[in-house]
Write a structure and sequence with these properties.
Blueprint (H helix, E strand, L loop, with lengths): L9 E4 L5 E5 L13 E4 L5 E4 L5 H4 L10 E9 L2 E6 L7 E7 L2 E7 L5 E8 L14 E10 L5 E10 L13 E9 L3 E10 L13 E7 L3 E5 L17 E3 L2 E6 L2 E3 L4 E11 L25 H10 L1 H16 L5 H9 L9 E3 L5 E3 L11 H4 L3 H6 L1 H15 L9 E4 L6 H16 L5 H19 L23 E2 H20 L3 H21 L8 E2 L15 E2 L4 H8 L8 H15 E2 L3 H6 L13 E2 L2 E2 L24 H13 L3 H14 L23 H9 L2 E3 L4 E3 L8 E7 L3 E10 L2 E11 L1 E8 L9 E6 L2 E2 L2 E6 L2 E12 L4 E7 L1
Parallel strand pairs: 30-34
Antiparallel strand pairs: 1-2, 3-4, 5-6, 5-11, 7-8, 8-9, 9-10, 10-19, 11-17, 11-18, 12-13, 12-16, 13-14, 14-19, 15-17, 20-21, 23-24, 25-28, 26-27, 29-30, 31-32, 32-33, 33-39, 34-38, 35-36, 35-39, 37-38
Length: about 800
C-alpha cells in the first residue's frame, strides 16, 4: 500500500509492515518494476509484455528494496531476551488491515505475552492538499504487555543513507554523512551527501536528503555500521557527524507493567528536489511542490513532529469517517483504494503549483484528458488541485484559439474529442466543488470557447459530433459514435447549466438546442433496438477501425457522467437501461478465459478464471465487426480495463441496477485480491493507472450524492439500505457523515460535520414512495432553522430562509413525521 504523501513519490508498505519500492529518487521509470516478461495468450503464443502491457498483472512486483531499512523490537521477560524484526520470518502470524490511507498491522507470537500493532500512513486529509503533500511515512508501534510480569521493551529503527547512491556510487565523489539532531519534539538522524565537487550532482535525481526520526525524545540516535544487530552499540561509533551507510535510532528501555501499553512513533522523511528530465515541461525544473514548505528532509521531520497530533488525528478521523458506513466494507475499500495513485509516481505536482501526471507510472505523459477525465476521486477529495489544473493547464496553456484543448499539454498540441468533452464536464464539477462562483466567473469566456468547440465538431448540425478526432482508444474514428456523441451532449448540457448561472441566455439556448437535437437523433439513429452503436461515415463506410454494430463498454458514458454532476437525464431512460442490460448480457463474463482464448491480441488485465467486462463484443457475429482495416488498437476491444468497468458500474448503480453494479465492482476487487496481486495497483497502461479512479464514481452514485457549493445545494438518494443508511461525504469546505434512518411514522436525516464546515441553502432528501410529510423540523444544535419545502417525484426539497453554516463537530438534523 502506498504510504507516502501525495505527489511525493512512491513508498510501499508490505504485508508484513516493511517499507519497500522507494521510488522517491526521480527516476521516472516506466512501471513500478520496469521489466519485460513472457506471457502466453489464448493461443499459447509467447509474447513479451512490459509494464504498459500489464507485466505486473501477470507477475506482481515483489521485494523491490533498493535501500536497507527496517524496524525491530527487543523483549526482556522472565529472564529471557527475544529480538524480533518486523518481518514475516519472525512472527507466527501477521494480520494486515489495508484501510487506505491508514494500514494497521498486528504481529502475533503465541509464545510471548505481548500484543504488537503497527499503524502506518502518511498524513492524508481531504481538502488539505498542503498537509497531504508531505514526503514522509509515519510508523507508529503500540506494544501491550498481556502477561503477569513486568516486561522491558526496546524498539529500534534503521535507514540506509541512499543520498546520491546511484549518481555517486563510489567514495571518489564524496562521502555520506549521518548527523544526529536532537530537538524538543524529535530525535533524528539526518542523512546527506558531502560531495567533493558541489556542482557535480546538482541535477541528479537522487541528490537531496533523508531522515529517520523518533517522535519525542526518549531515544538514542547514532550511525550504526551493522543493522543486523541494532540493539548493540558499536564502541567505535559515537553519536555525531559520521560517515556511514546506515543511520539508526534506538528507543530507550521501557519498563512495561502488565496490562499497560506504550507507543513508539517513527517518521521516515525524504527530500529529493529534482523531478527528472523525462518530464519535459518548464514547471518541472522548479522541483517538487513540497519544496515550497520544506528546505530538506530534516525540516520535514521537524514539521511532522511539531504538528504530529494534528496530522495524525485528522488522518485517522478521515479513515474512521470513511469506513463508518452501512455500505459494504469491501465496496468502501475498492471505491477509495485507487486514489492512492496520487501517492505514487503516476502523479506529480511541481513547485510552481502545477499538477502533472502520467496515465500510469512513467507511461503516457501530460495529464491526458481522455484518461484523467474518468478519474472521479481527485476532484472530490482534493478539488483545489483539480481546479488549479483546469485553470492553469486546460483553460490556460493548453487552450487553442478555436477553443480546442491540447490533450497532453505541451506533448500533444491537438485536442481529443472525448478528452475535450470530459474536461468541460470536469470544469463543471470543479465549479460545483467550490464555495462560490469565482472559478466560473473568472474562466467563463474560456469555458464557453471550449464548449462551443464541441458544438462546432457537428458538421451536419444534427447534434451528433461527426468530425474524425483522436479518442482514448488511440485512434481517429470516422462516423457518428454513440459514446462520443453522448459524452459531447453531456458536456454541452454542462455548458448550458453554467451559461444559465452566468445569465448568458443566448449561449444557454444554443447549448439547449444542440442537446435536444443530439438526443433526438442519437436515440433515433444510433440505437439498434437493443444498444447504442457507431454509425459509419456515409462516404467512407467501415474502412477504418471502429466499434460499429458491436456492443461497446462506453456507449452511454455521457449519461454516466451526467449522474456524477447532477445533470439529470440526457438520454431516454428505457433505451439507456437496454444498453446497460446489453453490456451485462454480452460483455460481462463470469470467466473471461473462454473469451480471451478465441479473441487474441489484448493485454492481460483479466486472466482465465477471473470475471470482468470486455470492452467490445460482437453480438451479431458479423464477419468483420470492427471494420476492414483492423489496426493494432483492435487489441483493446478484447481487454478488461478496470477504469471503464468502474464507470459502467457507477452508471448501473445510478440507474437502479444495484446487483449488477456491485457484481462488476466485486469482479475488479477480486481480480486485485491480495492473494493474487497488489490490491492498490489497478493496472492499465502501466501501474497505478489514473482511469481506475473512476471507482469513486460508484461510491457517488451509491449514495445518490449531488452537491453544488456556490448554490448551497446538497442531496442524497441512496441506492440501497434506504431505511438505515450512513456514508461519508466531501464538499467544498468540509467533510463528514450523512445518515438517514426510518422509525415509526418518522424519518431522520443527519449531517455530522467532522472537518471544516458545510454551507447549505437547499437540500433534497429521499422519501419513501407514497410517504406524505405532515410535519418537518430542521435543527442545528438547539436552533430551529426556518425553511420552505416542496414534495416532488425526486424527493423532498427543503430551502432555508437564509443560508446555514454547520461548523466542525456540529450537526444538522432534519426529521420528517408522516
Amino acid at each position: 500500500m502506498p504510504v507516502g504523501g501525495i505527489n511525493c513519490g512512491t513508498v510501499y508498505l508490505g504485508g508484513d509492515g516493511r517499507l519497500w519500492l522507494w521510488d522517491i529518487f526521480n527516476t521516472n521509470q516506466e512501471g513500478i518494476e520496469p521489466k519485460k516478461i513472457s506471457w502466453y495468450d489464448g493461443q499459447h503464443i509467447e509474447r513479451k509484455i512490459a509494464s504498459r502491457d500489464g507485466a505486473c498483472y501477470v507477475e506482481p512486483a515483489k521485494d523491490i528494496r533498493p535501500l536497507e531499512q527496517g524496524f525491530a523490537i527487543q523483549f526482556k521477560y522472565n529472564g529471557t531476551t527475544t529480538i524480533k524484526r518486523f518481518h514475516w520470518d519472525d512472527w507466527s502470524e501477521i494480520k494486515f488491515e489495508a484501510t487506505f490511507p491508514v494500514a494497521v498491522i498486528h504481529y502475533i507470537d503465541n509464545s510471548l505475552p505481548v500484543s504488537v500493532k503497527l499503524t502506518a500512513f502518511a498524513p492524508f486529509i481531504p481538502l488539505d492538499e498542503i498537509n497531504s503533500n508531505i514526503p514522509v511515512t509515519i510508523q507508529s508501534f503500540e506494544i501491550t504487555n498481556t502477561g503477569k510480569k513486568d516486561m522491558e521493551i526496546t524498539v529500534a529503527g534503521w535507514l540506509e543513507n541512499a543520498v546520491n547512491k546511484w549518481s555517486a556510487p563510489t567514495n571518489n565523489d564524496g562521502r555520506r554523512v549521518n548527523t544526529v539532531v536532537g530537538a524538543k519534539e524529535h530525535v533524528s538522524v539526518y542523512a546527506t551527501f558531502d560531495a567533493v565537487d558541489k556542482n557535480k550532482f546538482t541535477e541528479a535525481g537522487d541528490s537531496g536528503s533523508m531522515c529517520l526520526s523518533l517522535i519525542g525524545t526518549n531515544g538514542t540516535a547514532m550511525p550504526i555500521l551493522d543493522h543486523t544487530s541494532p540493539f548493540n552499540k558499536n564502541p567505535e561509533v559515537e553519536a555525531g557527524d559520521k560517515e556511514s551507510p546506515i543511520a539508526g535510532i534506538v528507543t530507550g528501555k521501557i519498563s512495561l507493567m502488565p496490562g499497560k501499553s506504550v507507543k513508539k512513533e517513527f517518521a521516515v522523511s525524504w527530500h529529493f528536489p529534482n523531478v527528472g528530465k523525462r518530464i519535459n515541461v518548464p514547471d518541472a525544473a522548479s522541483g517538487h511542490y513540497y519544496l515550497n514548505k520544506f528546505a530538506d528532509a530534516l525540516a520535514v521531520a521537524a514539521y511532522v513532529a511539531q504538528n504530529f497530533t494534528h496530522l495524525v488525528s485528522q488522518t485517522k478521523l478521515w479513515r474512521k469517517t470513511w469506513y463508518d458506513s452501512t455500505l459494504p466494507w469491501w465496496f468502501l475499500e475498492r471505491t477509495f483504494a485507487n486514489i492512492s495513485a496520487l501517492a505514487t509516481t503516476t502523479s506529480h505536482r511541481f513547485k510552481t503549483g502545477r499538477s502533472w501526471a502520467w496515465e500510469g507510472v512513467g507511461a503516457c505523459e501530460g495529464n491526458c484528458t481522455h484518461v484523467w477525465q474518468y478519474a472521479q476521486a481527485a476532484g472530490r477529495i482534493f478539488p483545489g488541485i483539480e481546479k488549479d489544473n483546469r485553470q492553469r493547464v486546460d483553460l490556460g496553456l493548453s487552450l487553442m484559439e478555436d477553443g480546442g484543448i491540447w490533450f497532453r499539454g505541451e506533448y500533444e498540441k491537438r485536442p481529443a474529442i472525448d478528452g475535450q468533452a470530459g474536461t468541460v464536464l470536469r470544469v463543471y464539477r470543479e465549479h460545483q466543488m467550490s464555495r462560490d462562483d469565482t472559478f466560473l466567473r473568472d474562466n467563463w469566456t474560456k469555458i464557453k470557447m471550449a464548449t462551443r468547440f464541441i458544438i462546432k465538431q457537428d458538421v451536419n448540425k444534427d447534434g451528433m459530433e461527426d468530425v474524425p478526432m483522436e479518442n482514448t482508444l488511440d485512434a481517429v474514428w470516422d462516423g457518428e459514435i454513440a459514446w462520443i456523441v453522448g459524452l459531447c451532449l453531456a458536456a454541452v448540457r454542462a455548458g448550458e447549466m453554467m451559461a444559465v448561472e452566468m445569465k448568458d441566455t443566448t449561449f444557454a439556448l444554443e447549448c439547449k438546442e444542440y442537446v435536444q437535437a443530439g438526443r433526438r437523433n442519437m436515440e433515433e439513429k444510433l440505437f439498434n433496438g437493443e444498444y447504442f452503436i457507431h454509425r459509419p461515415d456515409a462516404a467512407k463506410g467501415r474502412k477504418k477501425l471502429g466499434s460499429y454494430n458491436t456492443c461497446h463498454i462506453d456507449q452511454v458514458y455521457g449519461q454516466s457522467w451526467a449522474f456524477q454532476v447532477g445533470l439529470g437525464r440526457i438520454l431516454d431512460k428505457e433505451k439507456t437501461l437496454s444498453a446497460l442490460r446489453s453490456l451485462w448480457k454480452y460483455n460481462f463474463k463470469s470467466d473471461v478465459g473462454p473469451y480471451i482464448e478465441t479473441h487474441t491480441g489484448g493485454r492481460p488485465y483479466a486472466l482465465s478464471g477471473e470475471s470482468g467486462m470486455i470492452m467490445n463484443t460482437n453480438p451479431s457475429n458479423e464477419p468483420k465487426p470492427y471494420g476492414e482495416d483492423t489496426t493494432w488498437q483492435l487489441g483493446y476491444f478484447h481487454e478488461c480495463m478496470s477504469g471503464f468497468e468502474h464507470q459502467v458500474a457507477s452508471h448501473m448503480m445510478a440507474e437502479g441496477m444495484t446487483d449488477e453494479a456491485l457484481t462488476l465492482t466485486r469482479a475488479v476487487h477480486d481480480r486485485y485480491h491480495a492473494v493474487k496481486r497488489n490490491p492498490f495497483n489497478e493496472i492499465e497502461c502501466s501501474d497505478h493507472y489514473a482511469r481506475a479512479m473512476a471507482s469513486y464514481g460508484t461510491f457517488i452514485t451509491a449514495c445518490g450524492f449531488e452537491y453544488h457549493g456556490p448554490n448551497g445545494f446538497i442531496a442524497f438518494s441512496p441506492q440501497w439500505n434506504q431505511q438505515d443508511f450512513k456514508a461519508p461525504f466531501v464538499t467544498a469546505e468540509g467533510w463528514g457523515s450523512y445518515s438517514q434512518q426510518s422509525g415509526q411514522n418518522k424519518k431522520g436525516y443527519r449531517f455530522d460535520i467532522k472537518y471544516g464546515l458545510l454551507r447549505v441553502k437547499k437540500i433534497r432528501l429521499q422519501i419513501e414512495k407514497g410517504q406524505e410529510a405532515k410535519k418537518i423540523t430542521a435543527m442545528s444544535g438547539t436552533n430551529n432553522i426556518p425553511f420552505q419545502y416542496q414534495q416532488t417525484s425526486d424527493g423532498l426539497i427543503l430551502e432555508f430562509t437564509s443560508p446555514e453554516t454547520i461548523q466542525t463537530n456540529k450537526s444538522l438534523v432534519i426529521t420528517i413525521h408522516s
